[in-house]
Design a protein that fits this description.
Pathway: Sulfur metabolism; glutathione biosynthesis; glutathione from L-cysteine and L-glutamate: step 1/2. This protein is of the alpha+beta class. The protein has 21 helices and 12 strands.
């Protein structure tokens, strides 16, 4: 943040923000540009092409191709927050924006309408990528973390404002999902299949549709649309059935960006760009990442649902919590898996306003008892679909999930138990304790989510007219407040964030460098003695509670 600020002008500031509150409102860019709904790439009424990243042609290509493949502009409809002076029904007139009638037809009453990819992919998020020690561990993390996605989405909620209006949701997920929904009318089930191959239930940006580990097999209780020929080819090539079905499901999608040079020059024996072209444009809550070709990078898993928080401390807290949770899952062999259909229900619940404190989510009652794959298969009696697992899960509040309920200890208690068993220096433990304190107070409702705090800021602003409109002065004051909180010049509101300090250093201790060098040298020696190709040493993830956690962005 300091390095970015050093490159900016005096009146510019970097913000960690999930959604800019007035994206698509008049002249919201600097310099200002006019949208071109007739000849523009996106044909948006609100979003000028100049606001699309100019650094690579890929971004404009994605925008154009998603619209072209769908056969029409994307239609994003988000329920508006109905205040006392909000028109009812809330219906906007787009005629002065050169609407040809298509936007008026696509917009729903009492909804905030948006019409291009930029409204979703112009948002930000907090993602964490984990390095697994092997493919089996990667599959385990993928499945076990899937059920946490809606819960962490609700807890990290920080985007209640869209196109200058207060919405009745708290998260970006339905916005970004609709913004890249390239399905045709046939694929969406609006017309019988004639020209397309599949009826596809979800946007290519949505929650996962299947588990890929043996333990998750019997919880795959929804029909999986997949390319049968590709699935058979993968299985015949030695890929296990669950992973083959997962990949064959991803590949029901068409490419939305393809460059001529790649078609002419790529060597498919050594290059995986064509695979990544489809893999990386299936934007799901979790991503299973095979090792790149000709690289020492191993199997990885991305945790993708969380929203960006306004301070570095909050972002660090959510990141460290997820890292610690993976260590606890692997060390104690916890089981968080519930039927995939219930994860979908949880996702729909997570979008709602104040879901973190008002809603309940399906969660396992006993996470400490892990069934073996054999036991799971015996329980199911088949390779897919569960018939006797309803007693394994129940509806819980987020407070109960994190702090416990009856015999269920709660996630924070399990993490603290794990921390007590580790050798952690005092300074690091102090910092981690504050991170967990934030997660604990957000999950209990003692502290507000960022979305709740932003919504209350607008509702209590002197210029707010109780009409759901977030005017330019209100948005400016909100962002100015966020800047001052994030750079430390103002204290955060105590309802949202407590005062925190850290004893952790920005630099890595010399002792740690020496330890890594020793272990690396040892692994090289072992590989040489065994006459094996050299591999960089990678400690087992459970050796260090903070190992292998890397922060990414959308």
């Amino acid at each position: 943040r300091q390095e970015i600020q050093a490159e900016l002008k005096e009146d510019e500031a970097p913000l960690s923000l999930t959604a800019f509150p007035r994206l698509g409102c008049g002249f919201f860019t600097h310099p200002p540009f006019q949208p071109d709904p007739i000849n523009g790439i996106s044909k948006s009424l609100f979003f000028p092409d100049e606001a699309i990243n100019q650094g690579h042609i890929r971004f404009k290509t994605l925008t154009r191709n998603i619209r072209s493949r769908r056969g029409e502009k994307v239609a994003i409809n988000i329920p508006i927050f109905k205040d006392v002076n909000t028109p009812s029904p809330f219906i906007e007139d787009f005629s002065h924006l050169k609407d040809d009638g298509s936007s008026a037809a696509a917009a729903k009453p009492d909804h905030i309408y948006m019409d291009c990819m930029g409204f979703g992919m112009g948002n930000c998020c907090l993602q964490v990528t984990f390095q697994a020690c092997n493919i089996d561990e990667a599959k385990t993390l993928y499945d076990q973390l899937a059920g946490m996605c809606p819960i962490m989405l609700a807890l990290s909620a920080s985007s209640p404002i869209y196109r200058g209006y207060l919405s009745d949701i708290d998260t970006r997920w339905p916005v970004i999902s609709a913004s890249v929904d390239d399905r045709t009318e046939e694929e969406r089930g609006l017309k019988p299949l004639k020209n397309d191959r599949f009826r596809i239930q979800k946007s290519r940006y949505d929650s996962i549709d299947s588990y890929i580990s043996p333990l998750g097999r019997c919880y795959n209780d929804i029909e999986l649309t997949l390319d049968d020929d590709l699935c058979k080819e993968l299985i015949d090539g030695g890929v296990d059935e669950l992973l083959a079905r997962h990949i064959a499901h991803l590949f029901i999608r068409d490419p939305v960006s393809l460059f001529k040079e790649k078609l002419e020059s790529q060597d498919d024996e050594t290059d995986t760009d064509h695979f990544e072209n489809i893999q990386s444009t299936n934007w799901q809550t979790m991503r299973f990442k095979p090792p790149p070709a000709n690289s020492n990078i191993g199997w990885r898993v991305e945790f993708r649902p969380m929203e960006a928080q306004i301070t570095d401390f909050e972002n660090a807290a959510f990141t460290v919590f997820i890292v610690l949770l993976t260590r606890v899952i692997l060390s104690y062999k916890l089981n968080f898996i519930i039927p995939i259909s219930k994860v979908d229900e949880n996702m729909r619940t997570a979008f709602k306003r104040d879901a973190a404190i008002n809603e309940k989510f399906y969660f396992r009652k006993d996470v400490l008892t892990e069934s073996t794959p054999l036991e799971c298969a015996q329980q199911c009696g088949s390779s897919g679909g569960c018939s006797d697992v309803q007693g394994e899960y129940e509806l819980m509040t987020i407070k109960e999930i994190f702090h416990g309920k009856g015999d269920f200890p709660g996630l924070l208690a399990l993490i603290n138990l794990y921390m007590d068993s580790m050798e952690i220096d005092v300074d690091s433990r102090c910092t981690i304790t504050q991170y967990l304190m934030l997660i604990g107070q957000r999950s209990s409702g003692t502290l507000q989510t960022s979305a709740k705090w932003m919504r209350n800021f607008v509702l209590n602003h002197k210029d707010y007219k109780q009409d759901s409109v977030v005017s330019e002065p209100i948005a400016y004051d909100l962002l100015k407040r966020i800047v001052n909180i994030s750079n430390g010049s103002e204290n955060a509101d105590p309802q949202h964030l407590f005062h925190h300090t850290t004893k952790s250093s920005d630099s890595i201790p010399e002792a740690l460098y020496q330890a890594e060098a020793f272990l690396d040298q040892k692994s090289r020696k072992t590989a040489t003695e065994a006459d094996k190709p050299h591999q960089d040493f990678q400690p087992h993830p459970s050796d260090n509670p903070l190992s292998n956690g890397l922060v990414n962005g959308d």
